[in-house]
Fold this sequence. Notes:
By secondary structure, the protein is an alpha+beta fold.
Amino acid sequence: xxxxxxxxxxxxxxxxxxxxxxxxxxxxxxxxxxxxxxxxxxxxxxxxxxxxxxxxxxxxxxxxxxxxxxxxxxxxxxxxxxxxxxxxxxxxxxxxxxxxxxxxxxxxxxxxxxxxxxxxxxxxxxxxxxxxxxxxxxxxxxxxxxxxxxxxxxxxxxxxxxxxxxxxxxxxxxxxxxxxxxxxxxxxxxxxxxxxxxxxxxxxxxxxxxxxxxxxxxxxxxxxxxxxxxxxxxxxxxxxxxxxxxxxxxxxxxxxxxxxxxxxxxxxxxxxxxxxxxxxxxxxxxxxxxxxxxxxxxxxxxxxxxxxxxxxxxxxxxxxxxxxxxxxxxxxxxxxxxxxxxxxxxxxxxxxx
Length: 353
């Protein structure tokens, strides 16, 4: 029997995949030996080499990496019985194949986890076979049920129960993260303001574009020096921002278990004032030029002032706009377009103060 992978999580959950070929490739693309239809899996993610029943896995240059027992591998790694292989959000348990002795005889022996593997007759001389001990004499006369077998069965199921508990905790954590993201998106979509005439998040925010909620404590005015550092209200971009380049990629971001689609934007300040914040409409397209996502008034930059004729390039480690795509269109992303709509400029200091 050839080595096998038993899918535990992901779109192939519950399926048993036999590693029959000398080299088995795994990925999202249709040309792979094992196609994993999961957008967190790279097009060509990993490959497994099978030689004389032994399987060796290595990463094929994926963006998210290949993990064995939750350790990211950096080179060819030999798989052992019970190893858990994870590609993105899909995980598989490895089961080795049967090794046949020269005489064609096999024997089986139990493992610690309750699974069984086969050894050839040439190996049996080195493996002590378990001997059956006489059953202990009990006082059960036959009128009461015997729960000893139930206890042994429960002990054998403990690894599976522990794995199910870990999966359950992961699901709870994912649901909590998604709920938090949906909550934040809902707040952003409802229109958050810091003060009348000033948009964006921050302390003292209100929703729906209304006035700030009254406070039981009197509002204190900041000192004059701090007032000089406050930002101007946003106003129309009016061509002050020129988009130089827009790149799209699936990148790891904090709060996400798998890489997400991100637009990395390079732009130049062609206006006459220093810009500290930029908002824009971001449109995502597939390779045929069809729109698969539209985000209005997205903040594409906030930070240090960019002077006239200055420029900014997004860092692929921390910057960029996370794209919101139509349902099921994640794999179809090809490029994105950015149209600046509003800017906030640095407030000039008052020379009279």
